[in-house]
Write a structure and sequence with these properties.
The complex is a heterodimer. Chain A is mainly alpha-helical. Chain A has four domains: about 280 residues, no CATH class; about 260 residues, no CATH class; about 70 residues, no CATH class; about 210 residues, no CATH class. Chain A is about 70% helix and about 5% strand. In chain A, strands 1-2 form a two-stranded antiparallel ribbon. The two termini of chain A are about 70 Å apart. By secondary structure, chain B is mainly α. Chain B has one domain. In chain B, helix 6 runs antiparallel to helix 8 and helix 14 packs antiparallel against helix 16. Classes of the chains: A mainly alpha, B mainly alpha. The interface between A and B is large, with 120 and 126 residues.
């Protein structure tokens, strides 16, 4: 969407409009807001259906208020902003077309709720069922009243989701779960296509507002993206309305409770696709692409599904395929694209909703009362349930297009529309196909009525059939009476409805039309006659051949196709995913190194800085030291399988790094490095006790060669970058630290002032890192029991001589001396080499020596402090020192210092940063001891074991 | 402001330290919950500050701008702090159901984890960012080991070794940048980048691109993200929920340095292409998942892919989509981890494996929570995922990348729908059909804690739907702020204590 955003309509123009808008929004939102009412009713031991019915009635009430305005040709609009930047708003429109659909959804919804009250058993969680049903109702109402295409997609997807929940309602049944997932997959995919199409329409028109889109038909059709838009929108419509080749989800959705089938899968949701095409007809129709895509799909669907319907044994299966076929018929009409055909499509859609809902309910009654829906077992039910039989017969008559019923009228209109399409030699094709479709629909209607209700009484039914409860039949009766009324007196009943709804569909004037039972002898009548007689003939013939009772194993089931495709996809995904996860650490490292090399190389692109420093004049000692460093590093790699040797080699590396620091006048760093080396070696030794002395060789020569090359390349890359950095001294901020350390930081030792003052936050972070490391070690090892070997790698048992007397004697006087030294290092750190890190490491080392000399238990008895708490206290001291600054209005970690004169010591300096450094000291002591002592105690555990 | 701005660091630091100092488990819990709630309060306060003032800065130690470390609050940082705090509350509450006793020092580790995350969001200094990355990483290693199990040890070793390499590269990259531009302060670097000598551009670009590699490793962008699924799936569910924020730290770092420093180094097309591949991998993994936690781990990959597509498109609208998605995606994936953990506990021996097993009896809330979370993750209406998706697709169309982005985003959405529908149907429907193999345990403690944890996330995500307009406006304002680096630099200089009054 462009930044300008959609035109923001004011909420309402005047109070009256505002009230209307509120009422309109209520219709859609009420079912959502009150969807839990049925569950509440269930809790109160009231019928949940009653709750649902009340909600549906309440949603219908505003319609009575709004109807006059709409009937008068007006359009009620309501809009509330939702996400204005995206052009998504809660905008609703009630015009003739949407009001017709609202009426349909609420009317049939009420009947279905009443029916479901009797249909569902008390064991079903009816509260949940009706909550889903209300949510679906709201979503469907949203689809038909959305005035914003994005909002329409929102409700569209909600119908898919609620349909998923409703189909899977009997979750214990495998067919229900599979049917639900299949429906979600197909209609969900279509919904996503529709979303893409709608986004493109929004891009073309500049807004998603329906009014603007409908007025921009020419612009949309002229846009180069029109074919794509059309394909995407049609993908949405065809999947939802179960058009070939996406139809197969609908028959499997029949695993839903029958009220759901009656409501969603015949009367409402499957009509959403058709509604969408009707709604967008002014914007998208009128091109060759539309004609061919829509009418061909409709035609193929109509014929194919009608043929399949004839051979279904399951009552609901037959109805499902007949629904697909009838939807194809309506789609075909939409494809023809003339205003009159649109009107016929709308008319047939209404008729179909009425007779098909009643047929589903009748099928549900048969199922409910006999325990089966298999037409091979059912027979002669007219005797036990005559009223139901009569109702179903009339409804089937309407479906077959028998005169005096509503289906006849719309089918006649359909027939009449098929003339004159195509070039001269093909002009007969469409009427012939239409007649064939009609003929097949008569055949399957005949089968439904005759197989179930006539013939000899069935013997072996699971239940003894009888008429259903009185009020279970009421919805069927109402619908069937509607079929009759429309069929007998169309001019009084349906004609006014069509007259006010069609202009909204067309966004243009109403075509001339009259509805009458008798139009005289003409071609459509002849086609009807052929269809009726031929259909009955076909049924009788196929039945006589026994073709209808055979098992028709589906040769190519869309469901199987999709499921095996999904299984295959999942397999492939699993193979790929496993391969990647099996790659493990090495794969990760290799890709990381390759990525770093590639990116670093491409980024650097050989741009060497101009050399201002000459590499010449390196003293010989430096070369010697560097050579030893390289050799020691290579030795570490070479000895990596011999752990002890590797530790020695890496110790050499560390030592040389310390020497390097000394050479470049960084005594603090050199000291730190040295002490860290000591402690690292201790750590290695403690840990290595639990590890095998040698590690196995990993991978073959090829793999190790690759690894070696990659390592060399990575090392070379870092060396190259370092060389580039060293070519010329950059203009950096470091001069400030040298200049400001003493006058502003109060210390001559620049490194220390940086650590505890300039960049104290880094230091606080780093001591926290140390603390967490100790915490991690303790969390991992405390209470754990590592199994250690009792002998070394050569099989020699470890000595039982635990402590060395020599070490014990030496360590006693060492401790106080070391503590004194560390304190001195800590205190002078601000001005001379030393500081918290170094002091802490010295103290820790001294105490570790006690552990080594006297054993863990001996020290633990005398030093009862928890090292983790010590580490935590150190961090706390540092943080609190920093926090004190805030107390005087300065930022965190601001330091201060002063010079004081005292007796004996003379003038001395005190800096708040030294307290911070004390925190560092305490933290370092705590961390080192926590880690080493925790691992050390593991040895005790091993010893006792 | 000095105090409020460091509060997101001090609260978890204090929480972590206190949790170590107290000795009774109950006191540890009290510290954990109290600290998380305090953090939420701080985050809300800072969020309002960011909304009102745009920026707030604090110079650590009162040192002048390029020399001392700067903390910078802007809309992005404030948003991420808020998301982190919400996650902290949810995870801490959820852990009271028993997750915190499956290992030691859980609450302290969580607090330190939060310290690292918050610091990474707030800092205005490249090296300080490194330090906070270390804090969050080392805490994450320990948390990954929480409730020791063999697969967790393996995962921890992998993650640790890989991230040590990552940290090394981070230092190399910082070295390149420092040697090219001579500073560490992001605002200062932004200024120096504009006047870089030509012969130092190579080092600068190498540093910039290597940093993106480091951040991409944290974010788990392909091909650097192979470590994530097995690690997150192995972690304790409560821990994994907290980890949902970690990948976002990488994304935010890319977004931050990308807009501030590397606006013209031209890595966006590469990021876009790799993000599309990442998205595809996420969907593939979700389809193939054998456990719900594994599915959730791949959902994290999916969300990273989606986010980085938005980052890679690098328009204001796409960055806005990324910001909105940062909020909703993080919460949704965290929710799925918590649900996976609960499902695992309730099903006993079958745990959260996607196989038929005993019914999860008499619990309506859990399937409902799964449904809501699944819809949010798949990006179906009416929840935030859908709104984020529209925003992303819309931005892609405007950027002329619809042909690339639309098919991948929509197909992966479909794959996510299929995977989540299958998982839900298996866990909550098929298990009810009596084909289960093992009897689930009778009563499992921690229902209240799980309800509080998951409920917190749902509650926190709801404004993203009900006030989606305001949330999206905020995302746009955040994007606009990000794409105006000069304003960031001005704000940092304005907060300089030694600044001479003009």
């Amino acid at each position: 969407m462009p930044e300008a955003g959609p035109a923001r309509r004011p909420l309402a123009i005047d109070a009256d409009r505002e009230f209307e808008a509120l009422l309109l929004a209520t219709i859609v939102l009420l079912p959502f807001l009150l969807m839990l009412l049925p569950a509440a009713f269930e809790r109160l031991r009231l019928s949940p259906a009653l709750g649902a019915g009340l909600v549906a009635l309440a949603a219908a009430l505003p319609l009575a208020w709004l109807a006059p305005a709409v009937l008068g040709g007006g359009t009620v609009l309501a809009s509330v902003e939702w996400v204005p930047v995206l052009g998504l708003e809660l905008a609703f429109r009630l015009d003739g077309l949407s009001m017709l659909f609202v009426g349909l959804i609420l009317g049939i919804g009420l009947l279905v709720i009443l029916y479901a009250h009797y249909y569902l058993s008390d064991e079903d969680r009816n509260g949940r069922f009706f909550a889903y049903l209300l949510a679906f109702m709201g979503a469907m109402l949203g689809v038909v009243t959305s005035d914003n295409l994005l909002l329409l997609v929102v409700f569209w997807e909600l119908t898919s989701l609620t349909s998923f929940l409703l189909i899977g309602f009997w979750r214990g049944a495998a067919e229900a779960r599979q049917g639900a997932r299949l429906a979600l997959l197909i209609t969900g995919a279509g919904g996503l296509a529709l979303l893409a199409g709608v986004l493109l329409i929004g891009d073309i028109v500049g807004t998603y507002s329906l009014g603007a889109v409908l007025a921009s038909g020419d612009a949309i059709r002229a846009d180069p993206r029109y074919p794509l838009v059309l394909a995407l929108v049609l993908a949405g419509a065809f999947t939802k309305s179960a058009q070939f080749p996406f139809h197969f989800w609908l028959p499997h959705a029949m695993a839903a409770p029958t009220p759901v089938s009656a409501y969603l899968h015949s009367a409402t949701m499957v009509k959403a696709g058709i509604f969408l095409l009707m709604r967008l007809w002014p914007a998208l129709a009128g091109t060759d692409a539309w004609f061919w895509a829509v009418s061909t799909t409709g035609l193929v669907t109509m014929l194919f599904a009608a043929w399949v319907a004839l051979f279904k044994h399951d009552l609901k299966g037959l109805l499902a395929y007949s629904t697909v076929s009838q939807l194809g018929l309506i789609m075909l009409l939409l494809g023809l694209g003339t205003p009159y055909a649109e009107l016929a499509a709308l008319f047939h859609l209404l008729n179909h909703a009425v007779f098909k809902a009643s047929l589903f309910m009748a099928a549900g009654i048969v199922d409910h009362e006999t325990g089966t829906r298999d037409m091979r077992r059912l027979s002669g039910l007219a005797r036990q349930m005559p009223i139901t039989a009569a109702l179903a017969t009339v409804a089937c008559g309407a479906m077959a297009g028998v005169p005096l019923l509503n289906g006849f009228l719309s089918k006649e209109m359909f027939f009449a529309q098929t003339f004159g399409i195509g070039t001269a030699q093909w002009v007969w094709l469409l009427p012939a196909a239409a007649t064939l479709g009609g003929l097949l629909s008569v055949a399957y209607s005949a089968r439904f009525v005759h197989d179930v209700f006539f013939g000899a009484p069935a013997g072996d039914l699971p239940r003894k059939p009888h008429e259903p409860p009185r009020f279970m039949r009421v919805p069927v009766e109402i619908l069937v009476v509607t079929c009759l009324l429309v069929g007998l007196a169309p001019a009084l009943t349906i004609e006014p409805v069509l007259r006010f709804a069609t202009p909204a569909l067309l966004q243009g004037p109403l075509p001339e039309f009259t509805l009458a039972i008798w139009h005289g002898f003409n071609l459509p009548l002849a086609m009807s006659a052929i269809a009726l007689l031929g259909g009955i003939g076909l049924y009788a013939w196929r039945r006589g051949q026994g073709a209808l009772s055979r098992d028709h194993a589906a040769r190519l089931s869309g469901k199987q196709l999709v499921e095996s495709a999904m299984d295959g996809l999942r397999e492939a995904c699993a193979v790929l995913g496993d391969a990647l996860e099996r790659g493990g650490l090495r794969l990760s490292i290799v890709t990381f190194l390759i990525a770093s090399l590639a990116v670093g190389y491409a980024g650097f692109a050989g741009t060497w800085p101009e050399a201002t420093l000459s590499p010449g004049g390196v003293p010989a000692m430096t070369w010697v030291a560097a050579s030893i460093l390289v050799v020691a590093t290579l030795a570490t790699v070479g000895f990596h399988r011999e752990r002890m040797a590797a530790v020695v080699a890496i110790g050499v590396v560390g030592l040389l790094v310390s020497v390097t620091f000394v050479k470049f006048s960084a005594p603090d760093l050199a000291l730190t490095q040295l002490l860290v080396e000591v402690i690292t070696v201790l750590l290695f030794l403690l840990a290595m006790y639990f590890l095998p002395a040698r590690s196995p060789r990993e991978g073959g020569v090829a793999r190790r060669s690759v690894d070696a090359l990659l390592s060399l390349a990575a090392g070379g890359g870092v060396a190259a970058l370092t060389y580039a950095m060293l070519l010329s001294p950059p203009d950096t901020i470091s001069h400030f630290f040298n200049a400001a350390a003493k006058p502003e930081g109060g210390g001559y030792n620049v490194v220390n002032v940086i650590l505890v003052d300039f960049r104290a936050l880094d230091t606080l972070g780093e001591i926290t890192v140390l603390g967490i490391a100790a915490l991690g070690v303790v969390a991992m090892l405390d209470g754990a029991r590592l199994g250690g070997p009792l002998a070394d790698s050569e099989g020699r048992p470890w000595t039982s001589q635990r402590q060395s007397l020599f070490l014990q004697v030496m360590s006693r006087p060492l401790l106080p001396m070391a503590l004194l030294v560390s304190l001195y290092l800590l205190l002078r750190g601000h001005n001379l080499p030393g500081g918290g890190f170094i002091g802490g490491l010295v103290t820790a080392t001294a105490i570790v020596v006690q552990y080594l000399a006297w054993g863990t238990a001996w020290v633990d008895q005398r030093l009862t402090v928890r090292y983790l708490a010590v580490a935590a206290s150190g961090i706390a001291i540092a943080a609190v020192t920093g926090l004190a600054a805030i107390g005087v209005g300065a930022p965190f970690l601001t330091s201060t210092f002063g010079y004081f004169t005292g007796p004996v010591v003379g003038t001395f300096e005190l800096a708040s940063a030294m307290v911070f450094d004390l925190g560092v000291y305490v933290a370092v002591v705590g961390v080192v001891l926590a880690i080493l002592a925790t691992i050390g105690r593991q040895h005790v555990v091993v010893d006792k074991a | 402001m000095n105090l409020l701005l460091v509060a997101p660091l001090l609260v978890p630091l204090a929480g972590g330290v206190l949790a170590l100092l107290v000795r009774r488990p109950a006191a540890e819990r009290a510290v954990g919950v109290g600290s998380a709630l305090a953090l939420l309060a701080v985050a809300v306060a800072l969020f309002t500050v960011a909304l009102e003032q745009g920026y707030a800065t604090s110079q650590m130690g009162e040192w002048p701008v390029p020399y001392g470390i700067t903390l910078v609050l802007d809309r992005l940082a404030a948003t991420m702090l808020l998301v982190t705090a919400v996650l902290a509350v949810a995870v801490t509450l959820n852990s009271l159901g028993g997750a915190d006793t499956r290992g030691r020092h859980f609450h302290a580790l969580v607090q330190f984890q939060l310290l690292g995350v918050n610091g990474a969001f707030l800092t205005g200094d490249l090296f300080n960012l490194f330090v906070f990355f270390e804090v969050l990483l080392i805490a994450s290693y320990a948390l990954l080991m929480h409730g020791a199990r063999p697969e967790r040890t393996v995962a921890t070793v992998h993650v640790m070794v890989l991230n040590l390499l990552g940290s090394t590269l981070f230092l190399v990259a910082v070295g390149c940048i420092y040697s090219a531009a001579g500073s560490l302060n992001l605002a200062d670097l932004a200024e120096r980048a504009a006047a870089l000598p030509a012969d130092r551009e190579g080092l600068w670009r190498a540093g910039a691109w290597l940093l993106v590699v480091v951040f991409a490793l944290k974010a788990a962008l392909l091909p650097l993200g192979f470590w994530l699924p097995s690690a997150y799936a192995a972690a304790d569910g409560t821990v994994a929920a907290l980890f949902a924020i970690l990948t976002k730290v990488g994304v935010v770092a890319i977004l931050r340095t990308g807009t501030l420093l590397f606006g013209d180094v031209g890595l966006e097309p590469v990021v876009l292409a790799l993000a599309i591949a990442t998205l595809a991998l996420g969907a593939i993994g979700m389809m193939a998942a054998r456990r719900l936690a594994q599915l959730a781990a791949y959902a994290v990959v999916l969300s990273v892919g989606t986010l980085l597509i938005a980052v890679g498109l690098s328009t204001q609208a796409s960055v806005a989509a990324a910001v909105y998605y940062l909020m909703q995606g993080t919460v949704a994936t965290a929710g799925l981890f918590l649900i996976a953990e609960r499902v695992g506990l309730l099903r006993g021996a079958s745990a959260d494996r996607l196989v038929p097993a005993g019914e999860i009896r008499g619990r309506l809330a859990l399937p409902l929570a799964f449904l809501v979370t699944a819809i949010a993750i798949a990006g179906l209406p009416p929840f935030g995922g859908f709104i984020a998706k529209i925003a992303l697709l819309d931005a892609a169309a405007d950027a002329g990348r619809a042909a690339w982005v639309f098919p991948v985003v929509l197909l992966t959405t479909l794959a996510a729908i299929v995977a989540l529908a299958r998982a839900g149907s298996l866990l909550f429907w098929k298990s009810a059909s009596g084909v289960g193999r093992d009897e689930p345990p009778g009563r499992v403690a921690g229902a209240t804690a799980a309800g509080l944890g998951i409920g917190t996330l749902v509650l926190a995500a709801s404004p993203l739907v009900f006030y989606a307009g305001a949330a999206m406006d905020h995302a746009h304002a955040t994007a606009a702020q990000l794409l105006d680096p000069a304003a960031y630099v001005r704000a940092v200089h304005a907060g300089d204590p030694t600044r001479e009054e003009p």
